[in-house]
Write a structure and sequence with these properties.
2 copies of one chain form a homodimer. Chain A is of the alpha/beta class and 249 residues long. Chain A has helices at 22-36, 43-62, 71-85, 93-100, 112-120, 133-146, 161-164, 171-181, 195-203, 239-245; strands at 10-13, 20-21, 107-108, 124-129, 157-160, 188-192, 207-211, 234-236. Chain A is 45% helix and 12% strand. Chain A starts with 9 loop residues before the first strand and ends with a helix. The A-B interface holds A 70, 72, 124, 132-134, 137, 140-141, 155-158, 162-163, 180-183 and B 70, 72, 124, 132-134, 137, 140-141, 155-158, 162-163, 180-183.
Chain lengths: 249, 249
């Protein structure tokens, strides 16, 4: 864990949970759509199950049980499993398509846009997400409508598992990003709120920044204590603190 | 040639010549570096030969005479051919590396940043260039230092031949961009100052916008007359006119 960050040229960001608050965004849209068709659902539970289905289904892809596909398609597969269980069969095809695209409209954490604007002045900032490219660019542009600054997520580059044909935490994803950046792995810092993502990045030589997002899974499941403080190069509470740690005013 | 542009969701841009004035940028840096080592060169001719070498060497890649490589590498190959012819052998390895990266520092045409900012409010805007990803992102960020607005080139996405393993005008490049955008080809408009690029895009279903850049190859070779006006969906003089044609104030 070196404190010398002078070689770093680019920051790559996990997106779901790290940059955007997927849970509040999905719950809100589920509540609206269920109310519209006069069905009562536990939107928190639905959102959590939808999100939890995603590592499971990605694992089926990795194991060869399911062909490679975009997260849009995988989200839809999970949605179709959940719809009958929550009594939402009345949703039309158009409504299902629209609901599935809620993942394109996730809302940034309050510090995300301002922090990214600061970090962008010194570094190349890129997504490095299992989300597909179209999802990530829609999300970036949608943020312009919901963030008080009026800025979207100001990515320099949108890197996605889709470009590499592998999902994180496969090493191909991190190595592919470094190759496209024309940088050595230790010139790139992975930023994420998930330790597994950071460990995979570190294993191929990336620097690492852990960002604490304790309410990613809701207030009731907020992490009871902070991380221990020495596994990653940087551990911070938000992107503004990250910018400060990297010497940006 | 339909005038109905309501289906268009994304604009993809050729970069060298269309967005940036490669010739002035390269001439200026060549003049500085030659003066520094006390050599007189015809910087205009050098710049033109450097640029002209690039379609030739890309053709060698297409013909299988040379393995796939990035434009950075191909630019360096041509540079090494030109150095002895112009008496610049005194340039050190570091100076050659830096000079070769002039293509990362090309300066936008005066309307480019303002026009892209407008277009970005309504469309996804993406590069679609034979330049490699690292070159394109460096160029976008460098523009923040040279454009009066202080904005860089505000790309939503950086698409490069490097992502697809083919150079334009191969159809794989345009089809690959549409696939990553999750759009049908006719929802995408290619913007370029080179008719061949637009014809290749049109052949797989893209809409097309021709932007006149008459001094791309210098004042003395400025095109004597404008284009005839009916081959492409839109023909304009700059990006501000393009924005107006697409209904953006």
């Amino acid at each position: 864990m070196s404190n010398d960050f002078s070689d770093i040229r680019a920051l790559t960001f996990d997106v779901f949970g790290t940059v955007v608050d997927w849970r509040s965004s999905v719950i809100r849209e589920l509540e609206v759509i269920a109310t519209n068709i006069h069905v009562e659902i536990d939107a928190e539970e639905f959102a959590d199950e939808w999100r939890s289905g995603y590592p499971r289904i990605m694992q089926e892809v990795r194991d060869g049980l399911r062909p490679w596909d975009t997260i849009d398609v995988l989200h839809r597969v999970i949605l179709e499993e959940l719809i009958p269980r929550y009594g939402l069969e009345r949703l039309s095809e158009d409504e299902r398509t629209s609901l599935n695209r809620v993942w394109h409209r996730l809302i940034p954490w309050p510090d995300s846009v301002e922090g990214l604007m600061k970090l962008k002045t010194k570094y190349v900032i890129a997504t490095l997400s299992n989300g597909n490219v179209a999802l990530l660019v829609d999300m970036a542009k949608h943020a312009a409508h919901v963030d008080p600054s009026g800025n979207g997520l100001p990515w320099d580059l949108v890197f996605s598992a889709e470009l590499f044909g592998h999902f994180k935490p496969a090493p191909e994803v991190y190595l592919g990003a470094a190759r496209l950046l024309d940088l050595a792995p230790d010139q790139v810092m992975m930023v994420a709120t998930h330790a597994g993502d950071l460990r995979a990045a570190a294993s191929i030589g990336f620097r690492t920044a852990y960002v604490d997002r304790p309410i990613e899974w809701g207030i009731s499941r907020a992490a009871a204590e902070k991380r221990s403080g020495d596994e990653f190069d940087i551990e911070v509470d938000d992107f503004l603190e990250l910018a400060a740690m990297l010497g940006i005013e």
